[in-house]
């Protein structure tokens, strides 16, 4: 098929097995890797870390939580103004996280899902060439200034959270064969920063906004074996509806992608760039400046299927070779929409 497919991550079905037997079984021949759907608490992305990890940490004070609905608690926000807010307690200079390798929950979920993945692959339900994909939010996206109103708090948290995330990766690669694994970094705060939309950060030029997001990946890549595939999902955000912000063109995304490919410090196997429902040259022209080298590119064009072929044609004027995907994961979509969205991927693969 001319259009390789990529699944970004979340799919709101009940179980990992449901994800593998539906999306994995039908799309596997078009893909390199397969995520587990981020079912359950992970479906709302970073919010699970906020209520399962940060809200229970003794060094944090919760300033705000999502408002109840009809008197019943909510753990996932409806929009940015309904999100979790925290502060570091007075007297704490650096936040640390215990139970290394398990505290954040990513390793435990990955190991459980990989068992199901192996079983279904052995039974022939999944394509034998598929790798298991673990998608994790970046440090800067989990610990953004919008969750910690005092920017000084962020610098107290990031080093300890980065250590905890590195321990999760080490735990995963100790238990899943490196050559059967792919790790994807999910990056939305980084994209907002690349476009200069984070008003609470210091005003820096475009190069400064890019560079301050690279250090986390340069450090974390030491935990990822060379045999493991590495990729980046760049995101315009879905909280409150997609897109959370809508840039005029792909210039910021291209600048961030080029820096990640060139400066992460190891091979980047693919990069995913979201695409708005646009077909004009001005929006897509920055793709001519993308420098992927050997890195595969996936564009998030699978939406509003009436204009899918137009978006693909507009993009190919400036980037002749790319695979296709949705703009983001589907964790905030209704489960009833999944059959249609699965069909959308099959249609896109066949173009």
Structure description:
- With 351 residues, the chain is an alpha/beta fold.
- It has one domain: Alpha-Beta Barrel (TIM Barrel).
- It contains twelve helices and ten strands.
- The strands form two sheets. It has an eight-stranded parallel β-sheet with strand order 1-10-9-8-7-6-5-2.
- Helix 10 (281-284) links the parallel strand 8 (270-274) and strand 9 (296-300).
- The model has no long low-confidence stretch (mean pLDDT 93).
Please specify the SSE layout and strand pairing:
Layout: E1 5-6, H1 16-27, E2 33-35, H2 47-54, E3 60-64, E4 85-88, H3 106-122, E5 131-137, H4 139-142, H5 151-175, E6 181-187, H6 189-194, H7 206-211, H8 215-220, E7 229-234, H9 251-263, E8 270-274, H10 281-284, E9 296-300, H11 308-316, E10 323-325, H12 338-350
Parallel strand pairs: 1-10, 2-5, 5-6, 6-7, 7-8, 8-9, 9-10
Antiparallel strand pairs: 3-4
Helix pairs in contact: 1-3, 3-5
Overall structural domain count: 1
Alpha plus pi helix count? 12
Taken in chain order, the helices and strands follow as: EHEHEEHEHHEHHHEHEHEHEH
Distance between the termini: 8 Å
Q: Count all strands and give the number.
A: 10
Strand content: 5-15%
The average pLDDT value, as a whole number, equals: 93
- Strands in their spatial order, largest beta sheet: 1-10-9-8-7-6-5-2
| CATH topology annotation | TIM Barrel
| CATH top level class name | Alpha Beta
Shape: globular
């Amino acid at each position: 098929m001319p259009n390789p497919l990529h699944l970004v991550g979340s799919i709101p079905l009940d179980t990992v097995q449901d994800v593998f037997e539906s999306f994995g079984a039908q799309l596997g021949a078009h893909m390199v890797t397969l995520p587990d759907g981020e079912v359950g608490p992970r479906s709302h992305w970073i919010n699970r870390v906020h209520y399962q990890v940060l809200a229970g940490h003794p060094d944090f004070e919760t300033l705000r939580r999502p408002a109840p609905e009809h008197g019943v608690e909510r753990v996932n926000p409806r929009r940015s103004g309904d999100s979790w807010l925290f502060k570091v307690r007075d007297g704490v200079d650096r936040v640390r996280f215990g139970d290394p390798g398990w505290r954040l929950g990513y390793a435990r979920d990955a190991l459980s899902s990989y068992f199901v993945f192996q079983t279904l692959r052995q039974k022939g339900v999944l394509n034998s060439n598929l790798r298991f994909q673990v998608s994790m939010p970046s440090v800067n996206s989990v610990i953004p200034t919008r969750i910690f109103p005092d920017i000084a708090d962020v610098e107290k948290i990031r080093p300890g959270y980065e250590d905890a995330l590195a321990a999760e990766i080490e735990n995963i690669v100790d238990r899943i064969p490196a050559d059967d694994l792919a790790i994807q970094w999910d990056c939305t705060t980084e994209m907002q920063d690349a476009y200069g939309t984070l008003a609470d950060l210091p005003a820096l030029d475009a190069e400064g906004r890019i560079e301050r997001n690279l250090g986390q990946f340069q450090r974390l890549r030491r935990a990822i074996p060379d045999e493991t595939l590495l990729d980046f999902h760049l995101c315009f955000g879905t909280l409150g509806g997609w897109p959370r912000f809508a840039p005029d063109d792909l210039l910021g995304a291209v600048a961030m992608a080029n820096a990640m490919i060139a400066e992460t410090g190891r091979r980047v196997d693919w990069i995913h760039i979201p695409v708005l429902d646009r077909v004009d040259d001005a929006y897509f022209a920055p793709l001519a400046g993308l420098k992927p080298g050997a890195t595969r590119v996936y564009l998030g064009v699978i939406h509003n299927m009436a204009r899918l072929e137009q978006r693909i044609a507009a993009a190919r004027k400036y980037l002749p070779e790319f695979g296709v995907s949705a703009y983001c994961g589907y964790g905030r979509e209704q489960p009833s929409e999944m059959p249609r969205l699965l069909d959308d991927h099959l249609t896109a693969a066949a173009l």
